[in-house]
Design a protein that fits this description.
Layout lengths: L1 E5 L8 E5 L13 E2 L2 H10 L3 E5 L44 H27 L10 H13 L3 H6 L7 H19 L4 H13 L9 H4 L7 H7 L2 H11 L5 H9 L20 H16 L10 H10 L6 H11 L7 E4 L3 E7 L9 E7 L4 E9 H4 L5 E4 L2 H4 L11
Antiparallel strand pairs: 1-4, 2-3, 2-4, 5-6, 5-9, 6-7, 7-8
Helix pairs in contact: 2-3, 2-5, 3-5, 3-6, 5-6, 5-11, 6-10, 6-11, 9-10, 10-11, 11-12
Length: 407
């Protein structure tokens, strides 16, 4: 028998069948579970107000009332104990480093990263093998930046032009992978494999004809068949270059697979896709659709997240939730409309709530006039100001919005 219960009335031993409320609010990785003291405390701290309880599967003594039901095709939560626990790091950033200074450092990392990745592509095109060792210093720079401010580097790396897309895309996906791995509190070796896999995932594109890789229009069926070979070519190049981490090699070959089996090159699905490969599918697509490319302009980051969340069967649902938690429902640089009918750009996330970032107000949607820019912390603005929607910069004719938030 199912019954809706206020979180305040829950007791250990109750069987939670469903969590009610915003999809980003709860911290759990399963759709249903038996409450113990630890889970009850987590739930009470999460902000979820009500749940659906299955009274027929609940027990009064806190013992397990049955098997937990995992979401099909999703990854379990990282273990909370075991040998790897000592190597886990909490999801915190260095509060002694300002976001402005990290954004400035991120610009340098992007410049260095583009040169390093471009050099590897050039060597492959000359017939030489991949030297993954040359990106290890860059790998340290990326993970270090993510540890200081998780979203600084990914926000800057998104601002690539069509000419630099191929190379900076690798840097961006490496940073996104490190950010998501930290959100999941993975062991250190997995964080590095995730970042390295992101950096090297597209090496196979070095084997593509330049006129196909940089074509400004729609690809023909024959050209798309050529492009679809780059994951297989990438894995081969990395193996021949001495890359031995199977997780990194799997990312290179399978980052275009979908959780429902509709991807390529092998149409793998569900549990056939390891954790880091599932992560790479999300990170690769997010950076691709938010970046300017030879054949299209990038979408707004907040709009991109909304669209990705609607693509049924494309991504691991729980990893997608974790990704949004890490980058924010309204990522840095997103254009939003406030309840005061003013437009603003998101300039910093609020760790306490994804719905109330710090924004820079600069435009009146009502009078269609520019305003003297002012920063507003929506977490402290209360009922006086809140985000009511996401806006398209193209619709308003805004260009170079990054000038409003980059130092």
């Amino acid at each position: 028998m199912l019954q809706t219960v206020d979180v305040a009335e829950l007791r250990p031993g109750m069987y939670v069948q469903k969590l009610l409320g915003p999809w980003m609010q709860h911290p759990f990785w399963r759709t249903s579970f038996v409450l113990d003291e630890a889970r009850l405390a987590q739930l009470q701290d999460s902000g979820v107000e009500q749940v659906v309880v299955d009274l027929s599967r609940s027990q009064g003594d806190g013992e397990d009332g049955g098997e937990e039901e995992a979401v099909p095709g999703t990854v379990d939560a990282p273990p909370v104990a075991g040998p790897a626990e000592a190597r886990r790091r909490p999801v915190v950033h260095d509060s002694t480093v300002s976001l402005a200074s990290e954004l400035a450092r991120a610009r340098r990392i992007c410049d260095e990263g583009r040169e390093a990745v471009e050099a590897m592509f050039r060597e492959v095109r000359l017939g030489n093998s991949v030297d993954a060792g040359r990106v290890l210093p860059l790998l340290d720079e990326i993970t270090g930046s993510v540890d200081r401010h998780p979203t600084a580097l990914v926000s800057v790396a998104r601002l690539k032009n069509a000419d630099s897309y191929t190379y900076l895309h690798s840097v961006a996906v490496g940073a996104l992978m490190a950010m998501l791995a930290r959100q999941l509190q993975l062991p250190e070796e997995q964080v590095r494999d995730a970042a390295l896999g992101g950096l090297l995932h597209d090496m196979g594109k070095a084997m593509l004809p330049q006129d196909v890789l940089n074509k400004p229009g729609k690809l023909t069926d024959e050209e798309f068949d050529i492009v679809r070979q780059h994951p297989v070519q990438g894995e081969r190049l990395l193996r021949e270059g001495g890359v031995s981490q199977e997780a990194v090699l799997h990312i290179a070959r399978h980052h275009h697979e979908k959780i429902n089996g509709g991807g390529y090159p092998q149409r793998l699905s569900g549990a056939e896709l390891p954790l880091l490969t599932r992560m790479s599918a999300i990170c690769d697509v997010y950076d691709a659709i938010t970046s300017d490319r030879p054949y299209k302009a990038g979408w707004d980051p907040a709009e991109s997240l909304r669209r990705m969340a609607s693509w049924q069967g494309h991504f691991d649902e729980m990893l997608m939730k974790a990704f949004v938690r890490s980058i924010g429902i309204y990522p840095i640089g997103a254009l939003v409309r406030l309840s005061s009918d003013r437009l603003a750009v998101v300039v910093e996330q609020n760790p306490a709530t994804l719905l109330a970032p710090r924004v820079r107000v600069f435009y009146s949607a009502k009078s269609r006039t520019h305003l003297l820019s002012v920063d507003v912390d929506l977490a402290t603005a209360g009922e006086r100001e809140r985000i009511v929607g996401v806006e398209s910069p193209a619709k308003w004719g805004f260009r170079d919005l990054e000038k409003l938030w980059l130092p």
